[in-house]
Each structure stands twice: as structure tokens, then as C-alpha cells.
Amino acid sequence: MAPRAFNNFFAKHYKKHPFFLQVFLFLFPFVFFPLIDKNIYHIDLMTNVGIYVLLAMGLNVVVGFAGLLNLGYAAFFAIGAYTYALLNIHWGISFWIGLPLAGLLSMFFGLVIGIPSMRVRGDYLAITTLGFGEIIRIAFNNLDAWTGGPNGLLGIDRPAIGPWRFSVNPTPYFYLALFLVAVTAYLLFRMSDSKIGRALVAIREDELAASCMGIPTLKVKLYAFGLSSFIAGVAGALFASKQTIITPDSFDFVLSVLILAMVVLGGMGNIWGSALGALVLGVLPEVLRGFASYRMLIFGIIVILMMSFRPQGILGGQLIRRELNSRHKEAGDAAS
Amino acid sequence: MAPQVELFLQQLLNGLTIGMVYALIALGYTMVYGVIQLINFAHGDVFMVGAYLALSVIWLFMSFLPGASFLVMLLAVFILSMLGAALLGGAIEKIAYKPLRHSPKLTALITSIGVSFFLQNAVMLLVGSREQGVPEVVPTTRFNLGAFSFSLIQLIIFATALSLMFFLTWFVKSTKLGKAMRASSENMDAALLMGISVNRVIRATFAIGSALAAVGGALFCMYYGSINFHDGYLAGLKAFTAAVFGGIGSIPGAMLGGILLGVFEALGAGYISSEWKDVFAFLLLGAVLLFKPSGILGENLPEKV
User: Domains in chain B, ordered, with CATH?
Assistant: First the structure.
């Protein structure tokens, strides 16, 4: 009767804490990764994948849940990275305080951009964020006195726990990234199952109907945008502390598109989908070493083909599939 | 003439010149948006491909017909790059956007980013990632009006862009296809019921927009003397800003928006800082969205439901 008892135990606890168990089951195996594969280079790669997963999950909130397009996502990542770097270099603020501050400042910028562009029309947001991404990159490039210009900032402190400080060894970073991914995934699952998560999906499906149901659409969209920027800022701080050197070049449009491709590939609106997309596109370049120069070309083709043949992505759910595949939409939908 | 006035006029002229190029690109954005409400991100890259086509034609002329008069060469450059870009635009529409005609906007928008990425990297793999120099085909004659002077290439840009704009205005207003375009952008379903082949109209819109962008690309690469595979991205972004500034969906709006944006940018670069030149366009975009989202000449349509 042992399996039965296990099943009962599992069913009971899954019902009670479905997201906690899901996150645990999916991410716990990764705890063993550095123990099995001792190649430092591979651990470093997986740490970067962890940062990509954070970014893809964050972008998914806006693109997948709310159906809005953010094309300057790298800018929020950059703001997070520079916030922590500047706070640390000028005032010696530690990583653990810099991390939430980076998220908050990034969120602030997200709201500043989001308010004017979302007031008008959804697809303007795409272009405003794209312009914002350029402004941020040019600003970091030109404000030499603050940001070191094209040379960037160097000598950013690594995180420390008590007297023990992280070193070049990527393993602690790997666990830190894994931890942040787990926390983010858990919170996003909770969010997607909450009133706000459902409101977001309702807006994505039919904004007019949602607002008729009494959903404050602008507020909810801004909430999603702010949350998404916050996650990017946190990922940026982690990135800055890991690299210890940041330059404006690391945050260009290509990165924004890369993250978008991850979200699209995994499945818009699916939290594990974003993680899977980030894992695939993060590891792919290593697998396809010989095709390095074709990488970006292949990303472009992946995005086009996915949109034509499987717009819901690898792990896309029923709901988003129905929505994205609908051939015979009401006339109103095409016009809105 | 006082030197300040001279500087101002010179900056104004530079701004008008580049504004003409922005206007030519912006027309493609605004026409496509008018018909299928898609922000076609790949349009800037079509412009870049047009510039490379122009460069190829110039090379062909240089190697096979070195004695040809520059006017003949210019004509060939325009016609061939327009044809090539029109084919490319039509092909992009057929392969990438047509299957998504009834999908949500976000799907097509993401596809257009994929197309843009594809074009950029395909060109990069074909010709390499470094800046390509464009041979000087237009004589560097300068005309002087008092202290104020302009070059022959600037004159050519003005003449070409303005005549194409007049032609386009006539085309959209008076020809059958132009009328079909306007009808389709007004109400696609009604146009379909009136027997207009909407698919053909959309393909033609893409082709015409791409051809105009290619002329812009040809002029751009001859004016600056160089072209790079990612030039299309920034130029496209600015042209889109111009289209929004003028009122997206409006053809005269795109022309006016492009020209004004060019002037705004040149004056900003001349009087404030040339390092921040690229930022002005985006700040303008933000301001337009904040204060007059319908643009200068755009109709203030409430969002259709």
C-alpha cells in the first residue's frame, strides 16, 4: 500500500500547495547540476541561463499575460545592472540591499514609460519601449562622468554572506540564480492565479469586455508592466555582481529580441514555457558552436515559423492557442 | 550674411535633406498601418536592403560601363533597387504576414520583428558586418546662393523625394489601385464586399512602400557615402516616429512628419549636442504620444471596438 499512501500524501499536499510543489519538482533537480557536471564553464553557462530565465519570466508577464509588447526589455535589465553598480561603487551599498533597489528603480522607469504609451494604444507601447531602450543605451554611452561611457563600470562588488565573499567561481552564483528563479516562478504562479493574473488574461483576450466587467484595465496593465520591469532590474543586479564589469553594449536591442524569442518559443503566457525557451535558446549557441554566425539568423526564422505554425509556443496552453489561432475572429477584434 | 544665420540655414538644409529620406521611409509605415494596422518593423530593413541593391547596381555600372553618364546610372539605380525592394516587400507579405491575416495583432508584430532580424542577419552574412563605402557617383558640384550653398546630391534628393511624393499622392487619389487602397483602409470587409481583391491591395501596398523605402535607401547611401547592415534599424525607427508624428495612416502626415523630424534632429544636433542626436527623435515620439497621440495630420479616431 506504499504507493497508494504516497499518492494520497502527494495529492493532499499538491492540492494545498500546488505551485510550491511544482516549482520544487521542476527546479530541485538543477540543485545537483554543479555536483554532476564539474566543468566550471558549463556551470557559468547555466548561471547565465538562470539570468535569461528570470528575464524571460519577467517579459512573459507583459507579453504573455497582458498581451502587450515590450521591445526595450534590455533597458530595464540595464537600469537594474547600473543601479546596483553605481550604488555599490559610490556608496559601497551591499548586493543584498542593491538587489531590491535595482528592481524598484527599474520598476519606476517602467511606470514612467508605461503610463503615456498605454493610455493611447497597445501597439504604441512596442515602439515607445523600443525608443526607450535606445535612449537608455545612448545615455549610458554618453554620460561618461557617471557611467564610464563605452568603457562601462568596473570593480563592482560580488555578493557577500557574512565574511565570505563570492569569487570568480560561478557555483555560488548558480545557486543564487536558481534561488531567484524559484522565488520568481513561485510568486508568478501565485500572481497568475490571483485576481490580477486573471484580470490580465481577461484583458489579453478582450480588453473591452474586461473593462465592462469592471476591471480597471489601465491599472492592471501598469501593474504587469511594473512587475515585469522589477524582475528585469533584479536580474540586472545579479548580472552586474556576477560580471563585475558592465558596458552599455551588453544591453542592446539584440538582447531584447533574444528574450522575446525565448518567451515566444516556450509559449506566451506559460511560466514554465518561458523558462524552457530561455534554457533552449541559452544553451543552443553552445551546442551549435560551428553555426555561431548563423545564430541570429536562426532566431529570426524561429520567430517567424513559430508565429505561423505554432503561435502558442512549445508549451502553450489551450487558452492561448485558441486565441492566437482563431481564424475567424469577430470583426471587432481585428479592428481593436 | 551673419554667420549665425548661415549656420542656421545650413543646419536647416541638412535637416530637410535627411527629412526627405525619413519621409520616403515613413510613407511605407503609414500605408501598411493604414491598410492592415500593422507596425511593420521589417520596413527599416527593407530600406537597408534597398541601399545595398543601389550599391550593387553602382558597382555593376562601375565595372561594366565605367563611362556611363551619372544620370543614366542614377536612373538605373533607382529603378532596379525599387524593383528589387518591391519584390522583397511582396514576398515578405506573402510568406510572413498573409498567413496571419486573422490572427491577433501581437502575432503579426512579433513576426515582423523576426523578419527584421532575418533580413539584417542575412545581409550581414552576405556582405559582412563592416561599413561598406559607396563610390562617389554624383559629382560633388556645389551651388552657391550668396553665402548659402548646397550640393548636387542634396538637389537630387529633394527632386526625387518630392516628385515621388507628388506621384504617390496622385496615385492614391486617382488610380483604381489607389482608390482600392483607400477603400481597404477605410473598411476592409466592406471593400471585400465591393469586389476589391483585398489581398492584392495589401500586397501592392507592401510593394509600393518597399519601393519608396528603397529609393530612400539609395539616396541615403549616396548622401552619406557608406552603408551598414544595421543602418536600417535606426532609420526605420526614426521613420516610424515620423509617421506617428505626422499621424499614422495619413500619407501627407508621413511626408510632413518625416521632413519636420529631419529638421528637428539637425537643429538639435547643431545647437544642443550631436552625441545625443538619436535621442531627440525618441523624445519627440514620447512627447507626441503624451500630448497629441493622433499626430499632426492624423484623424482623431476613437479606438474602434
Answer: 3-291 (1.10.3470)
